[in-house]
Amino acid sequence: MAFGRKKKEDEAPEPVSPVAEVLPPEPVAVTTGPYDLADAPDLDDLQRIDLGGIRVPLAPDMEVRVDVNPEGHVMAAVAVHRGSQLLINAFAAPRREGIWDEVRTEISQSLRNDQGGQAEETDGPFGRELRARIPTGQPGQLAPARFIGVDGPRWFLRGLLSGPAATDPVQAAPLVELFRKVVVVRGNDAMAPRDALPLRLPREAAEQAAAAQAAAAEQGQDVTTEGEGRFQVDDEFNPFERGPEITETR
Fold first, then answer.
1. What pLDDT, on the 0 to 100 scale, is given for residue 245?
2. Residue 224 to residues 64, 69, 210, 220, Cα–Cα distance (Å)
3. CA distance 245 to 250
4. Taking the C-alpha atoms of 167, 169, 173 and 179 in order, what is their torsion angle to the nearest 10 degrees?
5. In angstroms, what is the C-alpha Rg of the chain?
6. How many domains are contained in the chain?
7. What's the CATH number where 72 sits?
8. Which domain holds residue 102?
9. What is the pTM of this model?
10. Which phi and psi angles does 7 have, rounded to 5°?
């Protein structure tokens, strides 16, 4: 039974466009990563370390470290795989435009003009990227490096590949895939473009580091948290399998 407004006998029925009835729905944009928190996959079976501004996936045969400064602040995440490393940093960006084009140009100019390095733009899995050779700190020595970047909604994610992954796509593949699965948590706080998103140790790691410092303080020892914490995936999802270790580096 149909319901509707009753028409007068001399009123012709309104035509119905046959095209409108068969048109497919508008396509929905698919995000392939890295992800903003708003479009992160709900069920991808990945274990991720929550570092505040970014959530970094854990993968078999791969170690995730966090670089910690002397004040105990997390500065970056580092994924390590078979001698290669991926340094991950996240930054605030303007609401309506990305910053990777500008950052890429600045990195290239700095390497060439100020540091005696080399840089060349090329296409990669996330668009334009930099293949570079950067100073090692030893006179006349340069090491290969690869800068990748992705502009997101009000954020920018940068990756720096070093070691064999800087020149070998096969070695780089696992780290590039990890970079693709990172979730960025921009938050709603007002931030100047290029400000680093605040990172932190996971709760369990922070508690262990605080306990170690308290114990050392009771014994009159001076403890620094500068260095790195390390996390690995295991079958029971214990991301602190090797610690986390907060080791001093000088």
1. 32
2. 21, 9, 11, 13
3. 16
4. 50
5. 25
6. 1
7. 3.40.1000
8. 35-201+223-232
9. 0.76
10. -95, 150
